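User: Sequence in, structure out. Go.
Assistant: Echoing your sequence, followed by the structure tokens.
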Amino acid sequence: MKRNRNAKIVATLGPATSSATNISELFEAGVDVFRMNFSHGSHEEHRSRYEIIRNLEKTFNRGVGVLLDLQGPKLRVGKFFGGKAVLKKGQRFRLDMNSAPGDAERIELPHSEIFSALKTNMTILLDDGRINLKVLNSDEISAETEVVVGGKISDHKGVNVPSALLDVGPFTEKDREDLIFGLDLGVEWIGLSFVQRVEDIIEAQKLCAGRAAIMAKLEKPAAINQLESIVDLCDAIMVARGDLGVEMDIEGVPVIQRQIIQSCRKAGKPVIVATQMLESMVNKPTPTRAEASDVATAIYNGADAVMLSAESAIGEYPVESVRMMDRIICRVEQDPQFWTARENERRDPENTASDAITAAARQVAETISAVAVVTFSSTGSTTLRAARERPYVPILGLTPRSDTARKMSLTWGVHSVQTEDIHAFREMVTKAIAMSKEEGFAKAGDSIVITAGVPFGTPGATNILRIAWVE
């Protein structure tokens, strides 16, 4: 299952893609990592999908990453008399802690942490931004607002306060239960919702205790204010454009997307661009031209991966959506301007032996026209460094650990394979040559460039570069 592209595809599983046949078709069409959205579905449904993925690995002899996406806190209003109300521009509207059903004059907002953060003239958004309220005054249990943009509203619609840093942690009781369930299953990635501050990542790391990698979903403007620190601390980033587009001016989302990608590229951390990438393919067999351009823009910007949500979870054309995404990525990566951009964004290596060796591996591979860079890594750190260099040739990431092989399936340019551990230098060269041939990267007469760390198995110790010729 050697892919003919560098950027990866993440697909969300759901009612439309829960059978072994569905999931296998998605994988064959091009999916590299499967996302399980814990905002929907039972534990048993997710367990069933997870087991199908693991059986799929045995069939295709390739590690497949699984991302558990936690729901996170959901801030919502209460119920209305009759289930709905109509708010008119310019009218007064009250939010309070009273659990009685609401009407066109007031509604319950059962979140004291929101009232604590409100200030005069702040904006409150209801129903994904469809209703816009301006705060006139507030206290610890209520807020008087003016309707700036009105419309129909119904029970339990979501609430966003774009300019406030809310005293709300990223984990609800449900999230903690879901996290324990996922860690016991053995997922590689935990998608952390509602990230606002560095402390949210630290809390997640304590709960995971090294059993899974942390992917911070950037969907709150407050997180952008601490972008560099959050990127440095977590293992990967998701640009969650849906909520970002609600909580900030929508014209700013493309700018923030590029800023996040550049920050991740600088730190050498994988970054996913997500939300509504091929949204029209939920119901149609082809995307709009704008959607195709949106996917292409993420790839041109340097994203490691792009993600399908509703398109693959509940859509009518999940396999076609994956194939379309695959086609767009391949076409962009054939453009010389794509590689010019990668050259221009490449930074000087850090003043470490590991960075020096990895940068040299890319340069040597280009100079001698090698067919692949082969990395040996137990934790994936050597492979991540190689990916940060964005070489012109594929990266064959060899590792003795199944969790590392699966985790690396998200990383740009990496074809990750679990193999037996190595203990000697000669064994390393022999293994690299054999696997390059077996995985379809090399044939007799080709050259490969090998990087690893000695002593073998030492995390982060990239200190060897070797050129080898395939016989």
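User: And one key feature?
Assistant: The first helix runs from residue 20 to 29.
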